[in-house]
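Anyone opening a protein record will find just a pair of labelled lines. With that in mind, the following record should read easily:
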Amino acid sequence: MPSRQKLLEAPIHRALLSLAIPIVIGQILQSTYQLTDAFWVGRLGAHQVAAVSVSMPVTFLVIALGSGLAMAGATLSAQYMGARQYEKVNKVAAQTMLMVLFSSIILGLTGYLLSPYFLTLLQVEPAVYQDALRFMHVSFIGVVFVFTFAMFQAIMRGIGEVKVPLLIVFGTVILNFFLDPLFIFGYGPLPGYGVMGAALSTLVTQGLAALLGLMVLLKGRHGIHLRRYHFKPDMSYIRRAFFLGAPGSVELSARALGLIIMSFLVASFGTVTIASYGVGSNILQVVTIPAMGLSMAVSTLVGQNLGAKQVERAEHVTYIGTLWGFIALTILGILAYFFAPNIVGFFIPDDPQVIENGGQFVKTMSLTWGFIGVQLCVVSAFRASGNMVNTMVLSLLSQWVFQFPLAYVLSKHTPLSQTGIWYSFAITNVLIAAVSVAWFARGRWKQTRLTDDDQDVLQVTEEALLDIEDHR
């Protein structure tokens, strides 16, 4: 694990790289779950790609509802680690594990039961419905594993240990690479399950990842030493984690719900547009991985430096990370602009309409990807400081004030048609990045100290709301 001195005292560039490189590699590996699914499902046809495309936002919505607890655990563990309050780091890990397991079971069961109603609301075509339903059912069964491993990764990042999660992801990704075509197409006596096979493969590999993550935490060899008494429910911590994590859950839920509403809009233009949107979204998810990994490194460094009361260093970490994110995604965006049809054709090689429409989607938004890197790093700093309300408001602005209204107006009330949806991504990227930087520059986030016993989470929330009011 990177030493406390390395994270808190080494040059910022070096400290960021020591965290960011393993996280980015891990994110790239983890994204291959979706990439492998997209590659093999694309061989089944556009209807099957559409089935996965309409299912993913719904499953993400349910997962997002409980993800705030993992965010709270990561934020608290980072600040306590920076403050050298190691016993509290252990308690945070144990209590977060309990809450995540409980919430994942409830949310997974709810999502499973409501899957048919979600698809009915989305008004998916009959040719897509059954595959989408099967995919969603298996995905919701696996929610408990997704939550557990996400919690493990968040806690380990919070204390600065990023190599162990990377090794686990690497092993399970290799396994998924072999299981995906096996479950989708079948082999010998094993029948092929089509779209559902992709979900089954992910279920098996993420279940294994979750089990390995729990074993690491319980063994106590990597910076966290859990004991039986740490698992005794502590209502004061649960209350603290709830109020800290609730805005984070709202933030991710707002994004997921925005994706679902966008799916309604996309679905109104037919299967080709749905498939183009699905492929374009997968590409966007992949190219933002470097900025996402960098933002996670920024979050860990900001949290630990704030815990150590090195506020100015935390601010410098954010600005450096923001610059790196902008440059990295701008370069990727330029490359994607020139090779857009080739990239889309990799996923759906035999459908010229999807290649043309998907390529147009990628070209339209790719030159603004650098602004996504800016937003991700600023939001990670807000989150690491405990200002979850800030991240929640930015998410609401992005999805509900900027993107969806723009997508609806441009696609339904201008000659752009479905291309208006593509333009909404580009415009939103620029607008939300500008708002994020302006808000961060105000500096009120620096006053948050979650490691101070006299600063309650409700006080942090109240101060964030006052900052919003002052900013209006």
Remarks:
- Residues 457-466 have pLDDT under 50 and may be disordered.
- The two ends are 43 Å apart (CA to CA).
